[in-house]
Design brief:
Blueprint lengths: L2 H18 L2 H12 L6 H8 L9 H15 L3 H4 L11 H14 L1 H8 L11 H15 L3 E6 L13 E4 L2 E4 L6 E7 L10 E8 L8 H9 L6 H13 L7 E3 L2 H10 L6 E7 L7 H16 L7 E8 L5 E8 L7 E8 L5 E4 L7
Parallel strand pairs: 1-5, 1-7, 2-4, 4-11, 5-6, 7-8
Antiparallel strand pairs: 2-3, 8-9, 9-10, 10-11
Bound molecules: S-adenosylmethionine (SAM).
Length: 355
């Protein structure tokens, strides 16, 4: 790979860490960029990895691997340089530690370079739940949930958490985790929601009962973002007794199974957040066609909903709902809300909004 391609990808990630809030990673990557000798283990590991450094986000993959070693206690000298407690981290010292750490753990680093960056952003539930409330109010039936690209399944358990939508509180009063979001606009009907069942799929589901998978998920949260670390820990604890039915399969195959299993007396809700851009175009077309086809056979006792929180532009996500109430009633498509792509803010438009 041309050396400049690699340098550009690392510089891109350095800027992104600066803009999105990891001063420590920003400084660490600046140290690396100031000594771009390909025989240094950090650069050698990235250089030997065959994927495109920009599209695979290989810089985030190696940072995640290093953070994993810090979290597991395998790299104590590096851990001393990473942010912890009130200590903001010392990027210069961390950079000097990397030679020894990467050399010692090279097989692990290489294996993690081969696996995708994988997060599960729980606060997105604060944007999805108003959509579930809307579906529940329309259908008046229990929800049969099916999540595409569910990662660790933490957003399949959205009913385990409590929510503060601006000044309105909703959800589980005894929850270990409260998700707050800046809210603007009216609110949907805030009634109780019945859940008939839940299942999800992912190309590589993470099992939160497995310590390695738990740590892997945490390792992709930047070390100087303790609030997000704390949120994920609480979400894992809050959901440990929920049966998830997480299946390792592409969304295109999974949707077919979900649609075939529809039952009377339930509204089937297919949903996803920030995963659509990873799905190949052909698979997206398959999913869209299968859902539309199934919508034609919806009935008042088995309606179909497709709810999705996906990027609208580079800074905003939108919450879209497609709803098929029955074969006789018209299909509707509505843009229910705009939101921050981490769910930290929601601008609710509600029913009827399409632009
Ligand atoms: C950015 S993560 C978002 C995870 C979760 N939806 C959230 O909002 O936190 C995208 C997830 O989609 C999964 N994914 C990507 N392409 C997929 C596909 N074709 N079928 C199923 N899952 C897929 C990835 O493995 C990853 O877990």
């Amino acid at each position: 790979m041309p050396k400049q391609t690699l340098l550009d990808a690392v510089e891109f990630q350095r800027q992104s860490c600066e803009n999105i809030g990891s001063p420590f990673y920003c400084d660490l990557l600046a140290c690396a960029l100031s000594e771009p000798a390909l025989d240094r283990p950090f650069w050698d590991a990235l250089d030997q990895f065959e994927g495109n450094p920009m599209s695979t986000l290989s810089t985030l993959r190696i940072l995640g691997a290093l953070h994993d070693l810090v979290l597991s206690g395998e790299a104590e000298s590096l851990a001393a340089t990473f942010p912890h407690g009130d200590f903001p981290g010392d990027a210069t010292k961390a950079w000097h530690e990397l030679d020894a750490v990467i050399t010692k753990h090279r097989a692990f680093i290489d294996s993690r370079l081969e696996s995708q960056v994988q997060t599960n952003e729980v606060r997105r539930c604060a944007a999805l739940v108003p959509g579930f409330l809307e579906v529940s109010a329309r259908a008046g039936l229990p929800l049969r949930l099916a999540e595409l690209g569910a990662s660790a399944g933490l957003n399949l358990c959205w009913d385990s958490y409590q929510y503060r939508f601006g000044d309105v509180t909703w959800g589980n009063d005894d929850a270990l985790l409260t998700l707050e979001t800046d809210w603007s606009g009216n609110h949907p009907e805030m009634g109780p929601i019945q859940i008939a069942g839940r299942r999800g799929c992912d190309l590589s589901p993470l099992d939160m009962a497995d310590a390695n998978d738990r740590r892997k998920l945490q390792s992709f949260i930047w070390p100087d973002q303790p609030a997000r670390q704390n949120m994920i820990r609480r979400a894992i604890r809050a959901t440990e007794s929920t049966s998830l039915n997480l299946e390792k399969m592409p969304a295109g195959d999974f949707v077919g199974e979900v649609l075939d299993a529809r039952q009377d007396g339930e509204v089937t809700v297919i949903y996803h957040s920030i995963m659509w851009m990873y799905v190949p175009e052909e698979e997206r077309d398959t999913i869209t066609a299968a859902i539309k086809e199934a919508g034609r056979s919806a009935t008042a006792t088995s309606p179909l909903a497709w709810l999705r929180m996906e990027f609208a532009d580079s800074e905003t996500a939108a919450l879209w709902l497609d709803y098929w109430p029955s074969a006789e009633a018209p299909h509707v498509r509505e843009r229910l809300a705009d939101c921050h792509y981490h769910g930290t803010s929601v601008r609710w438009f509600g029913a009827g909004a399409t632009s």
